[in-house]
Amino acid sequence: MTHQPLRRSFLRIAIAFLAMTALVAIATVLSGGMSETQGRILATSATISLASVCAMACAAFLERGRLPSLAYVGMALAFTAAALMIFGIWLQLTVLGSEAFWKSVFLCTLWAVAFAHGQLLCLPTLSKSHRWTQGASVACITTLGLLGSIAVVFEPHGDLLPRLMVTLAILIALLTLVVPILAKLRSGHEGTDGEPHSASDRLVLVRGGDGVFRDSLGQRYRVERVSEES
């Protein structure tokens, strides 16, 4: 089963609502002011676009076939966060004055982004010696999510928690840059099993006039086409 159509659907949705957001923003600038309805449309379009991007990252992780339940949880969080946010945007503030509601919106958004970010960093295939960076990324993102949840729910005093969160955010930013760089370095230099190519891994054959394939040492080979798996 392929999940590529799912990822493409999220991509189309994100592009469509990003375009709508841009059009509303342009119309606001040209009209010289923003009405309440325009502001809500702008916020709604941006919310759906961001939710689609998060869901698209989870769908890409789902294609890998590893831990699909995490991908489904990430997509569910993205949809829930978007639905709550849109509900809050369009309902009267007097009805949504509850602090608990907006804390729920923030928590869903926080974990939707955390799941999408972590799964996105797990997509590249790194060499065995570098895969620890992906594990460290997921650990840092999860820890930051937990600390952020504690800060929202319990609202602790002091500067220790904010300092820890900033430190983790810096580490996550660093690892977010390092992982794709390591994946790029691996490309073309390592085999699919994560080990470097050696001369024995490559076999160059030349077809002679008699139709027989030979290598550089003159060894003869019979070559048979292997059909692609369906």
Features:
230 residues; mainly alpha; 3-stranded antiparallel beta sheet; 6 helices; 3 strands; 66% helix; elongated
Overall pLDDT, averaged?
Answer: 82
Structural class, please?
A: mainly alpha
Helix/strand order: HHHHHHEEE
Compute the gyration radius: what is it?
25 Å
Could you give the count of β-strands? Answer: 3
**Strand order of the biggest β-sheet:** 1-2-3
The global form is elongated
Taking the sheet with the most strands, its summary is: 3 strands, antiparallel
Distance between the termini: 11 Å
- Unreliable stretches: none
Number of helices: 6
Summarize the structure.
The chain has helices spanning 4-31, 36-63, 68-90, 99-121, 132-154, 160-186, and strands at residues 206-207, 213-214, 220-221. By secondary structure, the protein is an all-alpha fold. It has a three-stranded antiparallel β-sheet with strand order 1-2-3, with no helix packed on it.
Which helices and strands, and how do they pair?
Blueprint: H1 4-31, H2 36-63, H3 68-90, H4 99-121, H5 132-154, H6 160-186, E1 206-207, E2 213-214, E3 220-221
Antiparallel strand pairs: 1-2, 2-3
Helix pairs in contact: 1-2, 2-3, 2-4, 3-4, 4-5, 5-6
Task: Give a structural overview.
By secondary structure, the protein is mostly helical. 66% of the residues lie in helices and 3% in strands. It has 6 helices and 3 strands; from the N terminus they run ααααααβββ. The protein has a 3-stranded antiparallel β-sheet, with no helix packed on it. A hairpin with a 5-residue loop joins strand 1 (206-207) and strand 2. The radius of gyration is 25 Å and the shape is elongated. 22% of the residues are buried.
